[in-house]
C-alpha cells in the first residue's frame, strides 16, 4: 500500500462513519433507536438485508472458493427465493400487526414468557458467538496481508462500528449499509473488469467461460441426491430453504432490518428484491473468482496465496530449501501449463473438438501436478509452523488485489473488506442490543422505567456487545479453529429456533410447555449430532433436523399433557 | 394467510410478485444447468 491507498481507505471509511453518525444525531425513542421509527423505504430495507448477510468473508472467501472448487457453492442460495416468499406471506404482516420490536416478543404473545426467553437465549448465544468472528475473520486476513497487529485491526474495525451504531441505532446501520454495499459491489465489479483486461488480448469474455468450463470450474449445478454432499441442488433447495427461513424469519439481525420498513409493502418488497437479487449477486462474486482463476492460467499464481505465512515458514532454513526446490518445479509446470492453455484457447476459438479434448486431458494432469506440489509446500509450512492454518483459498482474492491492482484501487478494495465487516457487525450489535433490552432487561429485570432509560440501556448494551465482540475476537486469535466453528454455529441453533417459530405460526394445537420442552430436547439432539455424529450428516441438514425435532417432541408432549388433563377432569 | 389491505405496486396482487420471484429463480437454475452442461 502507498499513500494514495491509505487516503482512499481512510477517507472512505471515515466519511461513511461520520455521515451515518451525523445523519442520525438527535434524541430518539425506543422505536426510533431500535426500528428507525419505521420509516425505511423498500430499497433501503433490501440493501440493508443484503449488506447484513454479506460479511467480509463473503467477499474474501467466495472468489477463492470459486478459484479452488468451482462455482457449485451457488447452489447454497437456491432455497432463498422461496424463503423470501414464505416470509412475505407469513412473518411480515404478523410482526407488523403485533408492532413488535423483536421476533421473540411474538413468542410471548403466542406462548408465554419462558418460550420467549428460550428463543431469545438461543439467539443471543448464536449471535453473540458469531459477532466476534464477524470481526475476527476479516481482521485475521487483513492483518496478515498488511502486516498489521491483529488486535489493533480488530479494535479499529470494532471501534468504527461502535461509534455510529451506539449513537444512531438502527437508522445509522441502514444508512451506512446503503453506501457500504454500493461501494462493495462497485469495487468487486471493478476488480473483475481489471482481471479481465489483464488477460491476453485474444481472450474474449466468452472465452473465459469456455476455459473455466473445460477446466472444471463451471460446475454450477449438481443434480445428484447425496445427503453428505454440502453443495448440490437438493441440499441447496431443501436445506437452504430451512436455513434461510430460520435466518430471515427468526434471527433478529435480519428481522430488525425489515421491521424498520415503513409499511408491510416496504418490508415485503425489501425481502422480495433480496429474493430476486441474491443469487445473481452471488453468481457475480463467484465469477470474479473464476476471472482470477483464468487470469492465473496466463500469469504465474503464487505457490501459496498466504505469502506472509510462507515467508514466516522459510525462516526455518531446512524448510526454506525444500520450498525453494518446490518453487522451481512449480515454475516449470507453469510454463508448460501456459502453453497448453494457449493451445486450448486456440482450439476453442477454432472449434477444434479433438484438440480441446487433448488439451483438457493434459491440463487435468498438469493441475494435479500443481496440486501435489502445493500440497507438499503446505506440508513444509506445517513442519516449520505446526499450528499454522494452511488453507489459503481465503487469500486468493486479496493477494490478487494487492499484487495486480493499481494504487488507489487497492485502497478502495480494502475499504470494501472493512465496509463488509462493519455492515454485518453493525446489524449484529444492533440486534443483540435489541433482544437483550426488549426480551430480557425490560421484560424481566426492569419493567417500569421510562422510554429514555431503555434507549440509554440500548446504547450501553450495544457498546457492551461491541466490546465483547472485540475481546472475543482477540481470544479467537489463540484458536484458529473458531473460524471453522462459526461456519456451523448457525446450523446448531437455527433449526431449533425455526421449529419454535413454525410451531408458533402454524401449529395452534401446541401450547407453551410442549414447545418449551421440544426446544430444549431438539437443541440437545443437535448438539449430540454435532459432537458425536459429525461425519454422517451435512451441516445444512441440522436445520431440518432441529426444526422437525421441536415439532415432533412438542407434539408428543402435548398429546401426553392433553390425555393427563382428560384423566384428571 | 393474514388479511391484506395493502396493494402492491406493479401487480394487482402480491401473488404476482411471489410468482415473479419463484419463476426468476427457476429460470436461473435452468440457465445455470445449461451453462454447466455446455461449457464443461
Whole-angstrom Rg of chain A: 25 Å
- Overall pLDDT score of chain B: 87
Extended strand count of chain A: 0
Structural category of chain B is mainly alpha
- Going by helix content, strand content and strand pairing, the class of chain A is mainly alpha
Strand and helix order of chain B: H
Helix coverage percent of chain A: over 70%
Give the low-pLDDT segments of chain B.
none
The quaternary structure here is heterodimer
**Number of helices, where a helix is a run of at least 4 consecutive DSSP H or I residues of chain B:** 1
Query: What's the alpha carbon Rg of chain B, rounded to whole Å?
Result: 16 Å
The geometry of chain B reads as: rod-shaped
What level of helicity do the residues of chain B show? 55-70%
**Largest sheet of chain A at a glance?**
none
Write down the overall geometry of chain A: globular
Largest interface: A-B, 35 and 24 residues
Global mean pLDDT of chain A: 89
End-to-end Cα distance of chain A: 78 Å
Number of DSSP strands of chain B?
0
Helix-strand blueprint:
The complex is a heterodimer of chains A (569) and B (40).
Chain A: H1 3-23, H2 30-35, H3 42-53, H4 56-69, H5 80-89, H6 91-98, H7 103-110, H8 113-146, H9 150-197, H10 205-214, H11 233-250, H12 252-259, H13 264-298, H14 307-313, H15 317-349, H16 353-384, H17 396-404, H18 409-445, H19 451-476, H20 481-506, H21 512-532, H22 540-568
Helix pairs in contact in A: 1-9, 1-18, 3-9, 3-12, 3-13, 3-18, 4-13, 4-18, 5-11, 5-13, 7-8, 8-9, 8-18, 8-19, 8-20, 9-13, 9-18, 9-19, 11-12, 11-20, 11-22, 12-18, 14-16, 15-16, 18-19, 20-21, 20-22, 21-22
Chain B: H1 14-39
What's a concise summary of this model?
The complex is a heterodimer of chains A (569) and B (40). Chain A is mainly α and 569 residues long.
Amino acid at each position: 500500500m502507498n499513500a494514495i491507498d491509505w487516503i482512499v481507505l481512510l477517507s472512505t471509511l471515515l466519511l461513511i462513519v461520520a455521515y451515518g453518525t451525523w445523519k442520525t444525531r438527535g434524541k430518539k425513542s425506543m422505536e426510533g433507536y431500535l426500528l428507525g421509527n419505521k420509516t425505511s423505504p423498500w430499497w433501503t430495507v433490501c440493501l440493508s438485508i443484503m449488506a447484513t448477510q454479506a460479511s467480509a468473508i463473503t467477499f474474501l472467501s467466495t472468489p477463492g472458493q470459486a478459484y479452488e472448487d468451482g462455482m457449485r457453492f451457488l447452489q447454497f442460495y437456491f432455497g432463498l427465493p422461496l424463503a423470501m416468499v414464505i416470509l412475505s406471506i407469513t412473518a411480515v404482516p404478523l410482526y407488523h400487526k403485533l408492532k413488535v420490536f423483536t421476533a421473540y416478543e411474538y413468542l410471548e404473545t403466542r406462548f408465554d414468557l419462558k418460550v420467549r426467553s428460550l428463543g431469545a437465549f438461543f439467539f443471543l448465544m448464536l449471535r453473540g458467538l458469531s459477532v466476534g468472528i464477524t470481526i475476527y475473520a476479516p481482521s485475521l486476513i487483513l492483518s496478515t496481508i498488511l502486516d498489521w497487529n491483529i488486535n489493533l485491526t480488530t479494535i479499529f474495525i470494532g471501534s468504527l462500528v461502535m461509534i455510529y451504531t451506539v449513537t444512531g441505532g438502527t437508522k445509522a446501520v441502514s444508512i451506512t449499509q446503503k453506501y457500504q454495499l454500493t461501494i462493495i459491489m462497485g469495487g468487486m465489479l471493478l476488480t473483475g473488469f481489471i482481471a479481465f483486461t489483464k488477460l491476453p488480448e485474444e481472450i474474449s469474455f466468452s472465452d473465459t467461460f469456455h476455459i473455466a468450463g473445460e477446466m472444471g470450474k463451471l460446475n454450477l449445478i449438481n443434480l445428484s441426491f447425496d445427503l453428505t454432499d454440502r453443495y448440490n441442488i437438493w441440499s441447496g433447495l431443501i436445506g437452504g430453504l430451512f436455513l434461510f427461513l430460520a435466518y430471515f424469519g427468526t434471527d433478529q439481525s435480519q428481522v430488525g432490518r425489515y421491521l424498520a420498513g415503513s409499511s408491510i409493502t416496504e418490508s415485503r418488497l425489501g425481502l422480495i428484491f433480496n429474493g430476486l437479487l441474491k443469487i445473481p449477486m452471488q453468481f457475480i462474486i463467484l465469477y470474479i473468482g473464476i476471472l482470477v482463476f483464468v487470469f492465473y492460467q496466463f500469469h504465474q499464481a503464487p505457490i501459496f496465496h498466504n505469502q506472509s505465512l510462507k515467508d514466516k515458514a522459510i525462516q526455518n532454513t531446512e524448510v526454506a530449501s525444500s520450498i525453494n526446490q518446490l518453487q522451481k518445479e512449480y515454475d516449470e509446470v507453469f510454463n508448460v501449463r501456459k502453453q497448453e492453455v494457449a493451445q486450448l484457447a486456440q482450439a476453442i476459438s477454432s472449434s477444434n473438438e479433438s484438440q480441446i479434448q487433448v488439451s483438457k486431458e493434459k491440463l487435468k494432469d498438469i493441475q494435479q501436478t500443481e496440486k501435489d506440489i502445493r500440497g507438499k509446500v503446505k506440508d513444509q509450512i506445517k513442519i516449520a509452523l505446526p499450528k499454522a492454518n494452511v488453507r489459503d483459498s481465503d487469500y486468493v482474492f486479496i493477494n490478487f488485489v494487492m499484487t495486480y491492482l493499481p494504487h488507489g484501487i487497492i485502497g478502495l478494495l480494502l475499504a470494501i473488506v472493512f465496509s463488509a465487516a462493519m455492515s454485518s457487525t453493525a446489524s449484529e450489535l444492533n440486534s443483540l442490543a435489541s433482544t437483550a433490552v426488549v426480551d430480557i432487561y425490560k421484560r424481566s429485570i426492569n419493567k417500569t422505567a421510562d422510554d429514555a432509560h431503555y434507549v440509554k440501556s440500548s446504547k450501553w448494551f450495544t457498546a457492551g456487545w461491541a466490546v465483547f465482540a472485540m475481546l472475543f475476537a482477540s481470544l479467537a486469535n489463540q484458536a484458529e479453529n473458531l473460524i471453522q466453528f462459526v461456519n456451523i454455529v448457525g446450523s446448531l441453533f437455527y433449526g431449533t429456533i425455526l421449529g419454535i417459530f413454525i410451531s408458533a405460526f402454524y401449529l395452534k394445537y401446541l401450547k407453551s410447555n410442549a414447545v418449551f420442552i421440544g426446544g430444549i430436547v431438539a437443541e440437545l439432539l443437535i448438539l449430540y449430532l454435532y459432537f458425536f455424529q459429525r461425519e454422517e450428516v451435512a451441516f445444512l441438514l441440522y436445520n431440518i433436523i432441529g426444526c422437525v425435532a421441536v415439532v415432533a417432541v412438542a407434539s408428543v408432549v402435548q398429546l401426553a399433557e392433553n390425555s393427563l388433563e382428560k384423566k384428571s377432569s | 394467510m393474514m388479511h391484506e389491505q395493502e396493494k402492491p405496486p406493479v401487480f394487482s396482487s402480491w401473488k404476482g410478485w411471489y410468482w415473479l420471484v419463484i419463476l426468476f429463480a427457476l429460470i436461473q437454475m435452468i440457465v445455470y444447468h445449461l451453462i454447466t452442461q455446455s461449457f464443461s
